[in-house]
Design brief:
By secondary structure, the chain is α+β, with helices and mostly antiparallel strands. Helices cover 36% and strands 24% of the residues. A hairpin with a 3-residue loop joins strand 4 and strand 5.
Amino acid sequence: MGSGANKKPRSQSEVLETESAVMIAAHAATDKKATDLVVLDLREVASFTEYFLICTGASTRQVQAISNSVEESLLENSKRPLHIEGYSSAEWILLDYGDFIVHVFSQASRRFYDLERLWRDAPRVEVGSDA
């Protein structure tokens, strides 16, 4: 088992709350036309978070709009980011929610950092067809 096994056990309701928040974030990103949206389940391969949501925007403005939409949608559900990085440059905006991290990339930065390759051992989570 991966390093995720060292995390404190969580209740079923906490797990469902996190999964629900990730899906809210995914829907908010797609509402702003994010492309190539991927959710990785890191629970068995990382100890610092449970999920990555990774998506791409076509321009600086769109990357920021996706980030804003995710943040606003989660705030409506009483979920606040612990930390936000990269908003002003909008090449890679990271919204850290503790149990999951949202990565909103420009197209060039997404190719360069290639998080899917770095975390290739993490299973992908199916996001509903309307996301």
